[in-house]
Structure formats: structure tokens, C-alpha cells
Design goal:
single chain; 125 residues; alpha+beta; Pnp Oxidase, Chain A; 7-stranded antiparallel β-sheet; 5 helices; 7 strands; UCP028498; DUF2255 family protein
Amino acid sequence: MTAWTSDELDKIAAADELEIAPRQNDGSLRNPVTIWVVRHGDDLYVRSYRGRDGAWFQAAKAGREGRIQADGVAKEVSFTEETDPGLNEHIDAAYRSKYQRHSAQYVDPMVASGARSATLKLMPR
């Protein structure tokens, strides 16, 4: 398994937003969607603001692969659902900390149960 370099982790984690393009069944990439990304340790996580009903989340879950881009880093990735409640607490804290300058109307949904149930770990390929 490939690991993130410290430079990739630092750049992606520092970026306000990330472009995510899940791979479709035919192997092509969906149009990229702009989302928030957080780091916990040496791992990167994203969540669907719309929860499990989000179109990009459903595509990522079905195809399990895609491409991300943030702060000059473009990378092919695999997606794995994160369901560990203890780890999700840390991911919640990372969202609150990183995006605290944004209104609660944007941050609160990202740490609510709907988005929490749509948490994906990004793994480089």
C-alpha cells in the first residue's frame, strides 16, 4: 500500500478545499466536486455534507477509487468508509478546529450524524 508523503499530507491538510472526482463504473472520472478535507495523524478524511445521499459519496462508495486535487497535489486515491465511533470523534474535532472561522450553519452539519455516517478515508494509490 502506498503512503502519503509528509509534503502531500501537509499541503492537502492545509488546503481549505479539495476537489474530489470519484471513478465511475466505466472507469471515467465524474466531474470534480469541491469539499472540505481534514487530517488526523497521517490520514486524510472527507465527508459528504448531504450525508449518504450525496451523489459524489454514492459514486465514491460504489467505485472505491478516484482522484483528488488540493494545493498543487493531484493524486489517485482509494476510498474506505470510516465507521469507528471513537475515530469519528477525532474527525469531528478536526472539522471544528480547521473550519471554526466558518459559520456554525456550515460546520455543524459536517459533524452531525448524517455527514458523520458518510465519512471516507482517502488512501493514495
